[in-house]
Design brief:
The structure holds two protein chains of two kinds.
Chain A (H helix, E strand, L loop, with lengths): L2 H24 L2 H20 L2 H12 L5 H31 L12 H5 L5 H35 L9 H23 L2 H18 L2 H7 L3 H13 L3 H12 L8 H24 L3
Helix pairs in contact in A: 1-6, 2-6, 4-6, 4-7, 4-11, 6-7, 7-8, 7-12
Chain B lengths: L4 E13 L6 E13 L3 E5 L6 H8 L7 E6 L2 E2 L9 E4 L11 H11 L4 H14 L15 H13 L5 E5 L7 H12 L7 E5 L3 H7 L2 E6 L2 E7 H4 L3 E8 L3 H8 L4 E4 L4 E5 L2 H13 L3 E9 L2 H14 L1
Parallel strand pairs in B: 3-8, 3-9, 6-7, 7-8
Antiparallel strand pairs in B: 1-2, 1-4, 4-5, 9-10, 11-13, 11-14, 12-13
Helix pairs in contact in B: 2-3, 8-9
Classes of the chains: A mainly alpha, B alpha/beta.
Chain lengths: 282, 311
């Protein structure tokens, strides 16, 4: 590929990403997310000023050296709890917010003009996808960094592992967005894509109880079916659990496998969406 | 690579299948059409004739079932083939969050123009389409005519060699139509091929050099407009002609167009016209006027689509 063509493609991709940001702003999604995140930050600030929390921090702060371990543990638990809340809340919110951004670009009269431009359908969908991920990433960075700074300033304990919630939240959103894209391409329905994505989040939590379920299920085939479903569905719950363990410095279960299997799920679903998008008539 | 044709469609076909029953609907059937470079070409046809499907196949919004489409010799499915094409779709929906300038900037970027070039060309184009003072206003405030003109600016921004306009004056008032026509006339002699898909026959007749008429997805007629409308004839306008006499007149092979309170008979020869007048007078009908006429594109269109129906 020559340099001019590569530059032209990069410029097209940048235009598509910019357009997604503009649409997110115009639909108040960007500001809605920003506002809700700010509200969450304000609530968090308020909670920290409640006497019982303030008192607990103060007591631990002035306690003798033997209790220094306790304050770190207390703060780490707080970090872990907050990270799980943000991970779950952020993913839910992101799926809701972004569900309309894919079907909107497929509207008749809009898509035919986009397709008449010298760009591939794959690039069009990829640009929209990347724009969507970046809109959500900007919000996650703002929310999680703000909470991290607040806890850090309050406790003087700066737990860098808490910031892992940022890439992890963005990653799991990117995986679920593949489902949103697929549903958007096939059915052009924002509501259906939200329903299926949220259902996947809930199913992932149920399927993750596999050790318990293996004991309950009495037939081999039902155990295999459970495990098959577990490996197929993105591991929203497992990755959240892994984040908690990392922050708490606990003995870690395998977090790499949930990561790559979820990524594989996303890639397969997104490839399916791209394939169907190529074949569709507008 | 320069080729002789801007558009080359060979045996192009599109069959839609209904989702559940799998019933086949042929939108375009075995269509072969070659549009030379640099001409003004009109595509006509009644509603549902397959005009928009054909245009969408050229621009890759619809995948052909069979056949091939080429733009300047390149396969239309290749994105690079669409680089020299400017397109104004029918019933377009430009995102309303854009300003006029923002919209041009976005579509200009997608057309491969760099920021410097876009910034240079956009003010001139806004001026050309009469939207100089509206460039920074959100397009949701634009009227239909303004949106059409902005759409035209979008199609012209990257200096295309082929301009594909789908119903460019649809919903635009007569003044707006004139403005759009003037802009397009300004492209005459620049070598740009203009392909207009329209149901406004007079517009196509006054603007285009070549025309193709589609009927039920098939090419019914194609040619140079000046040749198609060259055949002269005679028009007899009469009233109070009884039905029995009309049937006799019809048997002469002339076309009869009914109007509000009279009929208009289009005869091909002077002898035929005189026979028509004799028949009207014999039946106590009243001849209101008699004139020599050349057939209009409308006549050609009606004859073509009628003969198709008869077939």
């Amino acid at each position: 590929m020559n340099e001019a063509l590569r530059r032209s493609r990069a410029s097209v991709l940048a235009a598509l990403i910019r357009d997604t940001f503009q649409e997110a702003r115009a639909r108040w999604l960007f500001w809605g997310l920003f506002g809700l995140s700010t509200l969450l930050i304000a609530i968090f600030l308020f909670v920290l000023r409640i006497d019982i929390v303030q008192g607990a921090i103060s007591i631990m702060g002035i306690a003798p050296t033997t209790h220094q371990v306790d304050i770190r543990k207390f703060v780490n638990i707080s970090y872990a709890v907050v990270s799980i809340v943000l991970y779950t809340w952020g993913t839910f919110l992101a799926v809701f917010a972004s569900s309309g951004l894919i079907p909107s670009v497929l509207e008749a009269g809009r898509i035919s003009l986009l397709l008449s431009k010298p760009l591939t359908r794959t690039m069009l969908l990829a640009g929209r996808y990347a724009g969507n991920v970046l809109v959500i990433a900007a919000n996650h960075i703002y929310l999680i960094c703000s909470i991290w700074i607040i806890i850090g300033v309050k406790t003087h304990i700066w737990e860098l592992r808490f910031l892992l919630a940022i890439p992890l939240s963005i990653f799991i959103f990117a995986v679920l967005l593949c489902v949103v894209v697929l549903i958007g391409v096939v059915f052009e329905s924002a509501a259906l894509s939200v329903m299926i994505s949220v259902a996947l989040m809930l199913i992932s939590a149920i399927l993750a109880q596999r050790q318990f379920m293996m004991k309950l299920l009495d037939s081999e085939w039902s155990r295999q079916l459970w495990m098959a479903c577990y490996w197929i569905v993105p591991k929203v719950y497992d990755l959240g659990a892994a984040l908690r363990q990392i922050i708490l410095h606990e003995h870690q279960t395998d977090w790499v496998t949930p990561l790559w299997t979820s990524a594989l799920f996303g890639m397969v679903v997104l490839s399916g969406a791209m394939y169907l998008f190529q074949r569709r008539d507008f | 690579m320069r080729t002789e044709y801007a558009i080359q469609a060979d045996g192009l076909e599109k069959i839609y299948r209904t989702r559940f029953r799998g019933r086949e609907i042929k939108a375009v059937s075995n269509l072969t059409l070659h549009v030379p470079e640099g001409v003004k070409f009109g595509l006509l046809g009644p509603n549902g004739a397959g005009k928009t499907t054909f245009v969408k196949m050229l621009l890759s919004a619809v995948n052909p079932t069979s056949g091939s489409a080429k733009l300047f010799g390149k396969d239309a499915r290749d994105p690079e083939a669409r680089r020299p094409v400017g397109y104004l779709p029918e019933n377009h929906r430009f995102p309303t969050y854009f300003t006029g300038r923002g919209m041009l900037d976005f579509y200009g970027a997608l057309s491969g123009l760099d920021a410097l070039e876009r910034n240079k060309r956009i003010p001139g184009l806004l001026e050309l389409v009469g939207l100089k003072d509206w460039g920074d206003v959100r397009i949701k405030k634009y009227s239909k005519g303004m949106l059409q003109r902005l759409g035209l600016a979008q199609a012209l921004l990257h200096k295309p060699r082929l301009l594909v306009l789908d119903e460019p004056t649809d919903g635009v008032d007569p003044v707006g139509r004139r403005e759009i026509r003037d802009i397009l006339n300004g492209l005459t002699g620049t070598g740009v091929t203009i392909f207009i898909n329209s149901h406004l026959l007079s517009e196509v007749e006054s603007f285009c050099e070549y025309v193709a008429i589609l009927k039920s997805g098939e090419l019914a007629l194609e040619g140079k407009i000046s040749s198609l409308i060259a055949g002269r004839g005679y028009r007899v306008r009469a009233s109070g002609v009884p039905e029995a006499a009309l049937a006799e007149i019809r048997r002469l092979g002339v076309s009869i167009l009914p109007s509000a309170d009279a009929i208009e008979v289009q005869a091909v020869t002077l002898e035929q016209a005189n026979t028509v007048i004799d028949k009207i007078r014999a039946a106590q009908g009243f001849v209101e006027s008699f004139s020599a006429s050349s057939s209009s594109l409308e006549d050609v269109f009606i004859r073509t689509t009628k003969s198709e129906k008869a077939a």
